[in-house]
Structure formats: C-alpha cells, structure tokens
Design brief:
It is a single chain. By secondary structure, the chain is of the alpha/beta class. It has two domains: about 80 residues, Winged helix-like DNA-binding domain superfamily/Winged helix DNA-binding domain (Arc Repressor Mutant, subunit A, Orthogonal Bundle), CATH 1.10.10.10; about 220 residues, D-Maltodextrin-Binding Protein, domain 2 (3-Layer(aba) Sandwich). Helix content is about 45%, strand content about 25%. The protein is built from nine helices and twelve strands. An eight-stranded mixed β-sheet has the order 4-3-5-12-6-11-7-10, sandwiched between helices. A two-stranded antiparallel ribbon has the order 1-2. Belongs to the LysR transcriptional regulatory family. It comes from Caenimonas koreensis DSM 17982. This is LysR family transcriptional regulator.
Amino acid sequence: MDRLQSMRVFQQVVDEGGFAAAARRLDMAPAAVTRLVVDLETHLGVRLLQRTTRRLSLTPAGEDYLSRVRSILEDIAEADASAQTHRKEMSGTMRVLAPPGIAAHVVAPAAARFQQVHPEVMFDIHVEDAADPAIEDYDMTLLPGTVSLRSGVVARTIIDTQIVFCASPHYLAAHGTPATPQDLAQHRMLRMRTPGVRLRPLVVVDPRKPGADIEIEVTAFMTANHSDTLLRAALEGAGITAQPEELIAPHLKSGNLQRVLAPWITARLTVVAALPSRKFMPARTRAFLDHLVEYAKRSVADVRAMDAPVKRAKK
C-alpha cells in the first residue's frame, strides 16, 4: 500500500464529501479511491469514515487522524516547494572576477567540479589584476587579503597559504637539490617582477621561527610579472621558482614539480572572496563560495600530507 497516496485520497474524500467526487477531482476510478481508503483503515485497524447511502461522516478516530494527515501533507508540500525553489536558484550565471593565477589554478577547476553537481549553473569568469575592482559588478571577486574593502562588502577567506620553493625533477637531477637557503645563490632562480620596482634580495622565512628571516642575493635567470609564466618555465626545467601551495598542488601531487627547502618559504598569501552583500545572496553564490573554500582546503591538505614525515613502526 502506498500510505502517502492513501492519506491524500482520504483527505480528498473528506474535503469533497464523497468517494465519487474525490475520484473526479483526483482523476481516478471510484473503485480505486474506495480501495485505498479501505486499505488505510485495514492498516490502521480502525474505521475512519461512517458510510450511509445519503451521507459520509468522520468517526472520532477519523477526525483525529485527519488533523494529523493535513499537517503531514502540508509539511510535505512545503518541503517539495523548498526543494523546487532551491533547484531553480541553482541555475543562472555566476560572474567571478579573479587574478590570473587564482583564476587558472583555483577558480577554473573548482567551477568545473561544481558544475558536475549543479550542471545548470554557468560561469562568466573575468581574469584581471584589478587594483580597485568593481565588486558590485560581480557575484564574487577574489583578491589579496591586503586590499582594503569598502563598508558593506562581505569577505571570506578562501586561501591562507605559504609561497614555497619548487622545481621540476629534471632540473633537480641536472643541478642538484638545495639543502640550505644559502644554496639558492648557486641555482637558476625564476622570480616575480613588479613593474617599476627594482628586484630586491630574496627573503627566505622559517615559519617555525617568526622573525628569523634571511635575505639572500640570488641571480634571476628569468623574471616575469606573471606567475603562470614562471610556473610554466619551472615545469620545463628552467629553474627554481616560488609559488603558492594551492596553485601548484596538482603539479606536486602528480610529481611534475617537487618542493625544495621545506619548511622554508618566502612569504604567506591570503586570498579573500568579496561579495557585494550578504543580503539577497543567491543560493548558487552561497553554494559555490562553500565549495571554493573546501576545494582550496583539500588541495593544500594533500600537499602538506605529502610533506609530512613518514612515521616508522616500532619494532
């Protein structure tokens, strides 16, 4: 017996005042309506309706049962409506603004995985290093945590990571692996260049010892104002570069790059997602925000697990 269907039919019989009228409203055969009510009474072990040739009335048990059935069916209708509204909201277009490296290595793969679950959500990704982004023009803007945000803007940290040293296995096989920060002076370094700013000595930091920073004069065999350019060169064996863990996580996991000089880093990087307002935030935006945080967290967790020392079993 379909108990839910029987409950709906029972309620309709009462509301319509008879089996024939309920059958017409439900577009069912009168015999089917009668059978469902009888099956329900048999299941409950109590008569719900008093039937005569002229009228139909509820028994005391039927009155009590009907009040509960109405409440249950109303809850089910509300749940269905809520789910349908959520489905409709999980569609439409997400407009995202992000810097080049974050767009390519975090937003794009995270969006692709998000669409596997929510295929009706489309993405319009704008890639730009904007000094003063128009946050109100996008559903989500990713930017460095150092950027000042206007009042009313909602911000959530997406990435809080380290900028680590890495190189390809091919380069390390040919030139050796640096054992100390000072060894970097003997290697082919690939460095980020800020337009209009003179390249300074490389700062190397031990995150376990705050304040114990080291400055090293190194030769930059390649400079660029675009992190992906240096990453591509490192993958081809050009030298050692410094990149955020999240961005190079897939390459470290695949073995195309190897981290060197752990636990030494060159800086920390925080990326936040800025949204125009928490009020009236579409379901798709809220869901993608949560997804993006989890995606970045899993990426760096995988890398740090690889760096963790292997514990040997005690004999």
